[in-house]
Amino acid sequence: MRRVVLFACSSEWRAVVERADELIASSKFRALKSEGRTLAGFLDRPGNDPVFIKRVEIPSWRRGMYARIRGSRAARSLAGAAMLAARGFAHPEPLAASDSYEAGAIRSSYLLSRAISGADTLSRFALGPGEIKGRDVRRRKRISDTVAKEVRRLHDSGLYTLDLQETNIMVEDDGSGGFKIYFIDLEDFRHAATVSWNRRMMNLVHLDRSIGRFLCRAARLDFLYAYLGKRPARAEARKIVAEILASRAAIDRRKARGMASREHAAVSAIGGAS
Length: 274
What we know:
By secondary structure, the protein is α+β, with helices and mostly antiparallel strands. The chain is built from 9 helices and 11 strands.
């Protein structure tokens, strides 16, 4: 395979990303996510802070050619980081990025970024070890309000994301009694002259689906009101909630159909092999 370095902030990081596969296979790598063709985790460096490395493999030559036209995961992550940086949003700082080519198609993509060592995903930060911190309702509300206002600021700045899950938001104490919000999964960020209500709604629905397991209905309504910057009149509030619930139900139905299709394909494959 041919390796193409898309970005490196120094010669040191260029050398690291060029050895990405070797380092991922070594004992220095600690995997945090291994799903499908995505592998991500920390790369330990004795005497230095660890760095985060993500590798995404592309399953076919055809998809690899499409990625070459559309932009690889690494290329889109660099673009997302630039969008967020230009508007003052906290995010993982890219250190290096590269793609591997085979027969003219991208077959794997790599992103090396500075680890956010003091932060945790929204749910883990809000609940704490053993969910002890989650019992502090006032703290949980302050975190929720901070995230809601930052998501609103994101949209008002002309940015949105295709996948606003709570696991793609990281939070840390800011040292002055407040909280600092990081947006991760950089490849999914997009820019628009004006972020439409439908796009805002889709982001809110995706986030609502993922925070439902640790926020009750009243707390999720508080999140919505914090995002809106006010508590709307009852009729308007009911309309917005109805839109969110309808969008959420539509997403759930699509996911259920997708799961049923995959199960049917698996059963057919087993039947054909027997």
